[in-house]
Amino acid sequence: MKANAGNLNRIFKGLAASHGQVAGPVFVFRKKGREQVPGYKIDATQIESEITRLENAFELTHSQIHSLSAELRRRVDGPEASIFEGHAMILEDPAVLNKCRDKITDDLCNAELAVYQVSSEYAAVFEGMEDEYLRERANDIYDIGHRLIHNLLGTNEPLVGPSAKPSIIVADELSPSETIAFPRHLILGFVTDRGSTTSHASLLSRALGIPAVVGIGNLSEIASNGEMLLLDGTSGQVILNPTDIEIKSFNQTLESSRTFNASLGGLRHKQGLTRDGAHIPLIANVDSNTAMSELYAVGAEGVGLYRTEYLWLSMKREPTEDEQLEAYTKVVRALPPNQEITIRVLDLGGDKIMGSGVDFGHIEANPFLGNRSIRYLLRNRDIFKRQVRAILRASSHGSLQIVYPMISVLEELIEANAVVDECKDELRGEGVLFDENVKRGVMIEVPSAALIADALAQESDFFSLGTNDLIQYTLAVDRLNGTVARLYQPAHPAVLRLIDMTIVAGHEHGSRIAVCGETAADPVMAVLMYGMGVDEFSMTPQSIPVVKKVFSSIDRSDALKLAEDVRNFYNRPAGEIYQYCRQRLSEIVPDVPF
Ligand code: PEP
Ligand code: MG
Fold it and tell me: What pLDDT is attached to residue 153?
């Protein structure tokens, strides 16, 4: 082992992008610099042949992206599988090819330079955007630009990765194509100097189950091939050239994770129950890309959130009423008769605009506070009605309920209910079957909704706490922005107080309370919220076994006591509250690596 040069250059803290711990040798992945793009003047007589070269490269790139996309679909389910479809869309946009053609014709430059300049211009527009998610899309454009240039040059040599020994890839940044191109059996993990947890490379690592830490600083400049690295994708810590003591402690963490994961298998087909037998339904968040078999594999007890916007995003347009009916019926029918599905009406806007085919009019300066979800639907009644009619028609095939996203004022709920009533009248008039008793719920994801929960409860049947947005809007922290990620605090007393208010108001009116934000998948938060009174938890299917295990290891009274104690800490910082809950839980359930 190398003598280490102090902890400063050995122990790094980044953003935990994909869970899991792994130890192994470093492989530093260095990209070829952009300066290698050859640029030269062409003669006017060469324009035509240069444009043909360009068009051929577009075609070749397109077919490569299609193969990558198919490869990805074989390896992962869920929205991540459509990443390369976004790339294909950029390539299919006639404006991109036309701009490159114009450069060749007007500037008399070679095709490589034209592609380089056009992709840099597009990428610069994204890089200048305030929204972190959109800024990340600049990398997608560079990715396509590089691929086009390599195809023009005929230098699409295979990407240089570890050739024999499985290694941890250390890079300044990784594109989605690079992330998927490394042979899976040679990759132990990824660490990148830049990037955020929402970059496509991070999403892909999670979908592929490869531990990853991003935004680490400058490890790729410091580390050398073959040096030993400990990567903890759960805590975000990375240690280069670890000491024997560090290796020992890392191995202990690894061992307890393994034992714990092995213990989950037996619970897969059991209900969510506390040790003393209280039933806590653990249900799934899904979208049109989710393989329903995943739900059986983890023992989900229904669907607590069906995000319908992915239908729009994958079709790149509004699906017709019949297409929606088919999609909703498919999921409703896939569930056993005793299970229910909650279908959320369209939640486009915010970060979910691009590629939906929906015209939002002008670009909004602040889309998260703009014409988003229910606001958009109430301004576009025809779209809203087509969706509600499809949902109601699907209700004749099984048990479903409707939930409205982003309700911030009472009038929205009243108007949305009126639209549902109108659709019911229409369907009755047409003699179309539907369930007359379909329940209507409200997503509580804006502080104002929590504060008027008593009024909302009178006009609805249930609440679903969308904590992803509730935290964002309560703390004024962009949920996608890595720079302010440390202020995004699920256990912030302001958030907990709003959850408390929602539960009290909902229960007073006999409404059930679900949580469908990411906090439901964090066992520490789930136990706390259960103690606060939440009735059911909806999460990504993969998280269900862990949460089930934790609930099965505590008594209901443990959770009630935890929530009661935490109410006395509402004057403390969020980090302390969270640590307190975590500590208490690890005393009750010592075998769970929180
Ligand atoms: C939420 O905000 O918690 C939620 C579940 O909705 P989404 O993540 O789709 O905005
Ligand atoms: Mg939301």
Answer: 82
CA of 356 to the centre of ligand 1 (A): 17
Answer whether 517 contacts ligand 1 (Cβ < 6 A).
yes
DSSP state of 41: B
Does the beta carbon of 490 lie inside 6 Å of ligand 1? no
Cβ(417) – ligand 1 distance below 6 Å: no
Burial class (CB in 10 A: 0-12, 13-18, 19+), 230: buried
Q: 345 CA to middle of ligand 1, Å?
A: 12
Give, for ligand 1, the residue of 306, 406, 445, 474 to mutate: max count of ligand atoms closer than 8 Å to Cβ. 445
Beta-bridge mates of residue 228: 25
| Planar angle of CA 340, 346, 348, nearest 5 degrees | 140
**Residue 469 Cβ < 6 Å to ligand 1:** yes
Q: Which residues are catalytic?
A: 200, 516
Whether the predicted pLDDT of 69 surpasses 50: yes
| pLDDT for residue 5 | 43
Q: How many angstroms is it from 525 CA to the middle of ligand 2?
A: 18
Per-residue pLDDT, 3: 38
Helix (H), strand (E) counts: the chain: 23, 16
Q: What's this model's pTM, rounded to 2 decimal places?
A: 0.68
**How far, in Å, is the centroid of ligand 2 from the Cα of 278?**
29
Using one digit for the tens of pLDDT, what is the confidence trace for 484-535? 877 889 999 999 999 999 999 999 999 999 999 889 989 999 999 999 999 9
Counting from 1 in the atom list of ligand 1, the atom nearest the Cα of 469 is 2
List beta partners, residue 109: 41
Determine the average pLDDT of the residues in 39-59: 91
The answer to whether the beta carbons of residues 582 and 594 sit under 8 Å apart is: yes
∠ CA 490-339-207 to the nearest 5 degrees? Answer: 50
Greater pLDDT, 183 or 525:
525
Split at pLDDT 50, 70, 90, the class of 184 is confident
What phi and psi, each to the nearest 5 degrees, are found at residue 540? -60, 140
- Pocket of ligand 1 contains residue 466 by CB under 6 Å: yes
Query: 202 by DSSP, 3-state: which?
Result: helix
Which one of the ligands is nearest to 465 CA? 1
Residue 403: strand pairing partners:
344, 441
